[in-house]
């Protein structure tokens, strides 16, 4: 009888743990039959530490250091920064909805967490900071790890019950890249060669790393040439505004790289990449076409 009682208590403890428990107790995870994360004890085997982006998490006057890794969900979040999320405290996490939901790859979905992990919980479309109970977390699924807090975990545990947290790029992210930034881009289309002057920002640096590239661009809305990357690019100054003819911009919601060749007065969210110096009218009425981009002189 004692053995049965002990077993039942252990099962109850296991089932009580779920990501973002404060808001989603009705969505208990299914306990897997086999381990989903065989290399859980070795972070270097996950592939998420190959590239890290330093960020800050600001709650009132408290600033935490953290990083985001290089999977699809983390890159999607980076493309939106800075962003503020409202989080509620649970027994092992801070958790709150992030909208629109982060994109993710099924291969990145895992079970379990480590204290200090930043994560996206796919069931509730929630951003999560785990602060406790890593030793009892292996049965909790639907988690995509997107990074971790590097500040003292006790500082995380001392935050309030309900918090507003601003996630932003750390100031030192681009310090080692500034000297490599190109300022001119050569554009070749339908026998014409154009040049563009580039701005110095996170999105432009991401584009520069892809050069040379040839993109199948769509002629859309009688005003723009557009290519949609499969994954988000980082941004650091995306805002809603009007555009100028000849401007090259990035539209974060659709991961769109866009050349504006005609004005229609519309305002939309964009990050400026640069501007075509002259000759943008060659795109007017050209239709869908391959466009080559390479480093200019």
Automatic annotation (TrEMBL):
Superkingdom in the source lineage: Bacteria
Keyword presence, Signal: yes
UniProt keyword list: Signal
Domain Cyclophilin-like: 57-167, 187-294
Signal peptide interval: 1-19
Coiled coil: none
Region of interest called Disordered, as start-end residue ranges on this chain: 25-54
Record InterPro entries: Cyclophilin-like, Cyclophilin-like_dom_sf
Protein name: Cyclophilin-like domain-containing protein
